[in-house]
Amino acid sequence: MSASESPKVPQKTPLKPSTSPPDGTPLDCIRKAKSVWLTTHPQADGDGLACEAAMWLTLEKLGKSVKIMNFEPPGPKYRFLFEAGHLGKPKSLKVQVFDADLDPAPPDLIVLFDTNDFRLLEPMIRWREGLKASGTEIPILIVDHHQGAIPPDALAWVDRQAASSGEVLLAIIEQLLAAEGKQIDEAIASSLYTSLVFDTQNFRYIRSSPSSHKMAAALLPLISEPEKVHEALFANLTPMKLGFLAAALSALRIEAEGTLAVVILTRDLFQRYQAEANDSGDVVDMALNVSSVKVALLLRQETDDTWKISLRSKKGFSVLETAQNFGGGGHINAAGATVKSADSHSLETKIKPLLITEIRHKMGAR
Ligand SMILES: [Mn+2]
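^ thats the input. predicted complex w/ manganese (II) ion below
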């Protein structure tokens, strides 16, 4: 999930282990593990996937057996992250899709990137619970920058001021490699740089901190063609994708005296243009580029009666509480939830008053 600004809190909180981690610190836990799975939330984005690639390359340097275990194959626009030869990758990295029915051999550790919400990880969490009941405990280490409570039985390295999970991971990778006398190479650096460029959307959302630019300054000397990262992430339109954006933008409405953008995208539209779920992120970002718009609401149909609510807001306006109201979460300026609803209209009528109240309240407070 991409991150926008958060409140100005100058101090950093890099290491936050949750209550009495079973196996010591997160770093110890990684060092001890011989086999590691890397995972991220479904509809994985450029942050979570890039973290997986960077960590995969790091752990392999440390002689560990590593698997990327996701909930679907990576979206086409992110496949470059796993391709041999691209951005210094020595070989292609395999992304597997978790399937409990295949009875996978449990790893010593699961590292989860870019979310702290275990509900998103089903059926993996249920599978882990089942193993625990029969005596096999698999620790989970969360590497993340989102708001929200850490599940009680998880280890966590969370920095809620970081602009990307990659920024949190950089600190981990540096320490893991330095302890073995090894260094970050181009493939690791370009993966981490991808996470940074993606979640800050080209250094647009840097969370009132120089740390994103400092991270770029540390990584860029190691990357021969950094512009390839920008191209892969942002210059990836196809005629079909452009058609999808045109159709989606024509469905966009600007309401509440120009302050609220609303767009509803049905499954039909995605099917017609062979669009992916995360293609709609561009639509909501574009809506927020309208100067009068403070908050953008996107409703995306996932199944007949399941809708994904995506919310974005400008600085000074929070959408986190609204997302939480519908059982979701995220950041102050970028949040979402998945809900059951027979139609989009009734859902829209429930969400809009909350957003309009937030907009009026904050505008009134100025
Ligand atoms: Mn992120």
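Residues 1-23 have pLDDT under 50 and may be disordered.
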